[in-house]
Amino acid sequence: xxQLIASVKGxxxxxxxxxxxxxxxxxxxxxxxxxxxxxxSGQHCAFDLVGVADVFLQDLGSTNGTYVNDHMVRxxxxxxxxxxxxxxxxxxxxxxxxxxxxxxxxxxxxFLSDSMLQPQMQASFAVISGSSAGLExxxxxxxxxxxxxxxxxxxxxxxxxxxxxTHLAGESVPxxxxxxxxxxxxxxxxxxxxxxxxxxxxxxxxx
Length: 207
Hints:
The chain is mainly β. The chain is 6% helix and 47% strand. It has 2 domains: 3-95, Tumour Suppressor Smad4 (Sandwich); 122-206, Tumour Suppressor Smad4 (Sandwich). The chain has one helix at residues 105-117; strands at residues 3-8, 11-17, 22-26, 33-34, 45-50, 54-59, 67-68, 71-72, 77-78, 84-87, 90-95, 122-127, 136-139, 143-148, 152-159, 162-169, 175-176, 179-180, 186-187, 193-196, 199-206. It comes from Ramlibacter agri.
């Protein structure tokens, strides 16, 4: 899931996962992300999670402004993986997908070892329906999660013999090529279509 990593002078001070439809940032305690310094407005900006992986940043009329990659945000702006948001002394790095820990240390080690042995295949998901249609999300970590918490969440694990998808959480069971995912991890093939609560994503493999 998308995440924000806030730092001051290179020192990480906050690490937040975007799980809500709207996450607010500001100086006042009522915000989801509180940055307690006078250069941050009471309600400074908001992050809107749309579809599977789109996050939009909106400045809420802050006094000192919100900047993305050194450009002031003047209207609602879709963030790209790796964007750096500047608010006063804070630098907030936006990451589109996050690595999730597995249930045990041994499993994590296995995933990492397998991924290093895997031939150099580049994997990604292309969103083909819903509000995020046209977005391409790379799969670059040993274990990556996709979806909406509380609705439908899957993990994609990079192992020695390929990429495997597993239903992690949510009442809506994901579909793979029109069939419900079972309890076991399922090997993904190039051009497979994954349906997460009505949002379809095509899996792509390239050398």
